[in-house]
Design a protein that fits this description.
Distance between the termini: 19 Å
InterPro entries: DUF5598, Nicotinamide_PRibTrfase
Oligomer: single chain
Number of strands: 5
Shape: globular
Structural class: alpha+beta
Radius of gyration: 18 Å
GO molecular function, one term: nicotinamide phosphoribosyltransferase activity
Order of helices and strands: HEEHHHEEEH
Strand order of the largest sheet: 1-5-3
Protein name: Nicotinamide phosphoribosyltransferase
Pfam families: NAMPT_N (PF18127)
Number of helices: 5
Largest sheet: 3 strands, antiparallel
Length: about 150
């Protein structure tokens, strides 16, 4: 991406469309969502025999994504408005969590209230182990965890 494209990147549009309505689907009083990413172990359906080419994975690239797309003020009024319009057209309904994104803009000046923990970049990790975790740090933003988790996959 060139500098202009980076400035225009809208994290509110950078997710699977089905995740746009997830905030409405959490149980009442949800306040914390903790997600993890792993390189899954693949097994055949009829046995426990592993059928994978590599038993380990090299973990790298998360710091780049965090610094490029999730660090600093990533939510703005303009991005909220753009997402609202795109999702209204896409879903033919007002399902976008405008209130939640405005909360982040107003309370955190557009910075994301999340915490990401990860194994060190360059680590060689056996398949089936957690590579990184994501969780919200504000109970009002429980829905944000899995929105962000998609960015790091």
């Amino acid at each position: 991406m060139n500098a202009a494209a980076e400035a225009e990147f809208n994290i509110l549009l950078a997710t699977d469309s089905y995740k746009v309505t997830h905030y409405k689907q959490y149980p009442p009083n949800t306040s914390k969502v903790y997600s993890y990413f792993e390189c899954r172990e693949k097994k055949t359906e009829n046995s426990k025999i592993r059928k994978v080419k590599y038993e380990e994975t090299v973990f790298y690239g998360l710091q780049y994504i965090l610094n490029k797309y999730l660090k600093g003020k990533v939510v703005t009024r303009e991005k909220i408005q753009e997402a609202k319009e795109v999702y209204r057209e896409h879903f033919q309904d007002d399902v976008f969590n405008e209130k939640g994104w405005n909360y982040i803009l107003e309370k955190y000046d557009g910075h994301l209230p999340i915490e990401v923990k990860a194994v060190p970049e360059g680590s060689v990790v056996p398949r089936g182990n957690v590579l990184f975790t994501v969780e919200n740090t504000d109970p009002e933003c429980f829905w944000l965890t899995n929105w962000i988790e998609f960015m790091a996959q």
